[in-house]
Amino acid sequence: MIHVEPIQVGEYTFIGVEVKLPKTTLISISNDRGYIMCGALDVGLLNDRLADRKIIAARAVGVRTLKELLEAPMESVTAEAEALGIQPGVPGYEALLKMV
Asked: Where on the tree of life does the source sit, at the highest rank (predicted)?
C-alpha cells in the first residue's frame, strides 16, 4: 500500500510518502528540490555513483512514521545537502526548511 499526504513545515508544504512493503515501510518527505528519508536511503551511493546528479537528501534511522522522520536527527546527508548547510544531527524539519 502507498500512502501520500501533504506535510506542513512552517509555511511550506512537502509531500510525505509511506510505502508499505513486507516487513518494512519506506518513508520519505520531499519537495521539488530534495528529500529526507528513512534508513533505506543509501547516502554513499548518492555521493559516489550518482554525484553528477547533485541530489539533496538526508537519512534518518530508526523511524517508522512521517512524524518520527520530521523529528529525528539526520544520521547522514549527501554532499549537496551539506553544501546547503544541512548537517548530520539536525532534525528532519530543519533539513527540509533548508531545501526550500
From this structure: Bacteria
